[in-house]
TrEMBL record:
InterPro entries: Mak_N_cap. This is Maltokinase N-terminal cap domain-containing protein. NCBIfam families: CG0192_rel. Pfam families: Mak_N_cap. Residues 20-103 form the Maltokinase N-terminal cap domain.
């Protein structure tokens, strides 16, 4: 379950991505273009400490890009090269925003979603002491396989797709959904403007 806050972020997520995204080698689109969100989904951090959100974003007339983000209350050791930026959350205070592909909490959650079929987290707003469900704006499904533990994330190779190497499994995040085939156990998704499911990520045992 993801408990959301009715809050403002300064700068906003899209403002951070507008600066960060054009420098990625897998980005296709003009620098300085206005970005729009096509959809998003969240995973749970069992410890409740790290926010995990994957945003599908792009220029209005360009391809869709998939950007997993993690939100932390303090810097993540050794992940400076994967920092998207920092933002001030009006409820939670300073947040360090990372490309989730380099965050071990995201790697474990992604493996669970693909291999154990945990799916996306239900999202709630808390209003006057009551929880109100936020309807998802995209759907994800997993092909399913035997769960594998992800205890020791290793190298991350950020190319056209991003490879996350762990002790037991290799995870591949498709950066431009619809632009690549997938092999292994697959996480697929659909959203407004993409009515059929396309691969978002996949996992294969090492």
């Amino acid at each position: 379950m993801a408990l959301l806050h009715r809050a403002t972020l300064r700068p906003s997520k899209l403002d951070l991505l507008a600066t960060w995204l054009p420098a990625r080698q897998w980005y296709r689109g003009p620098a300085g273009a206005d970005l729009v969100t096509r959809g998003a989904y969240r995973f749970d951090d069992p410890a409740g400490a790290v926010g995990i959100e994957t945003i599908l974003v792009g220029a209005a007339d360009g391809p869709v890009h998939q950007v997993p983000l993690t939100y932390r209350a303090a810097p993540l050791d050794g992940a400076d090269d994967w920092l998207v930026g920092t933002t001030e959350h009006s409820v939670l205070g300073p947040r360090w925003v990372y490309d989730g592909c380099a965050d071990p909490v995201y790697a474990a959650a992604l493996a669970d979603a693909i291999l154990a079929g945990t799916g996306q987290a239900d999202q709630y707003f808390e209003v006057d002491g009551r929880r109100e469900l936020r309807e998802p704006n995209m759907t994800i499904v997993a092909s399913g396989a035997a769960p594998l533990p992800v205890d020791a994330p290793g190298p991350v190779v950020d190319e056209e797709a991003t490879l996350i190497v762990t002790d037991s499994v290799e995870l591949v995040v498709v950066r431009r959904p619809g632009a690549a085939d997938a092999a292994g156990a697959v996480l697929s998704g659909s959203w407004n403007g993409q009515p059929t499911t396309v691969p978002l990520a996949y996992a294969r045992a090492r």
